[in-house]
Amino acid sequence: MQKKITASVIGSNRSNMFAKFKSGRLIVGLSLSMALSLAHASALEQFKSFVSSTQSAKGEFYQQLVKIDAASKTPKVSSTSSGIFIFARPGKFIWTYQKPYEQILQADGDKLYIYDKDLNQVTTKSLGNALGSSPAAILFGSNDLEKNFILKEGQSKDGMEWLEATPKAKDTTFDHIGIGLKDGLPQAMELRDSFGQVSLLTFKNFVKNPPLSAGQFKFVVPKGADVFSN
Predict the structure, then answer these.
(1) How far apart are CA 159 and CA 166, in angstroms?
(2) From start to end of the chain, where are the E strands?
(3) Could you tell me which of 152, 201, 209, 224 has the fewest CB atoms within 10 Å of its CB?
(4) Each residue's pLDDT tens digit, 168-225
(5) In 90-163, which ranges are continuous DSSP H helix?
(6) pLDDT digits (tens, 9 = 90+) for 65-101
(7) Burial bucket for residue 52 (CB in 10 Å: 0-12, 13-18, 19+)
(8) Distance set, CA 25 to CA 72, 126, 187 (Å)
């Protein structure tokens, strides 16, 4: 009797282990399938998937400002900067420049605060509809981006699928925005203004939907800072 019970228990355990093994393989298979699907998806498909599945994110950025040399007509990098960012849709973000000088752009969904550490000066302005057709809306705005942008597929380059976004409004700073995507995440942005200047942004250590603390985006005016309103 003891042998039968033991054999029965072992058989049951093996069945459970096999079921768990199959379940684990299924989960891994589905994950790989989704990853491969994103890897071969168009820029627009990847972008829409990113927007619908990302309520918040954080990461690092590197920014270059490229100007066209008047004499040689060739592009030249005129300045570089880098820092970190965190955002929560819609309209809440902290964009922190760490190099070459410290500056913070922070929005709480209602107001935008620009803090210059060297000057110890804060400039505030109403967020209003300003976010709508700005490059910030690509990452930080609402999910209804086609309300403010015309979206179309761009060319593949630098190992990324590119999406072209043209603001529908005519009074925006940038007249063309490119978004480079890979594996379902934004990897780079190209922002071209009406003067021919191009800002190149690259992202790394991009984390989707990180845990956020209460009051994460509440701006606290630094001690002794001068505050100006626009």
Answers:
(1) 22
(2) 56-68, 75-88, 92-99, 103-108, 111-116, 121-126, 149-157, 160-167, 174-182, 185-193, 198-208, 226-229
(3) 224
(4) 877 677 888 899 999 999 999 998 887 778 999 999 999 999 999 989 999 999 999 9
(5) 136-140
(6) 988 777 777 778 888 999 999 999 888 999 999 999 9
(7) exposed
(8) 58, 51, 30
The pTM assigned to this predicted structure is 0.76
Q: Which residue matches tokens 């599945």?
A: 53
Beta bridge partners of 193: 174
Concatenating the DSSP letter of every residue in 37-77 gives HHHTS-HHHHHHHHHHH-SEEEEEEEEEEEEE-TTT--EEE
> Residue 182 is encoded by which pair of tokens?
């890979």
Element housing 230 (H / E): none
Please state, in angstroms and rounded to a whole number, the distance separating the CA atoms of residues 154 and 152: 7
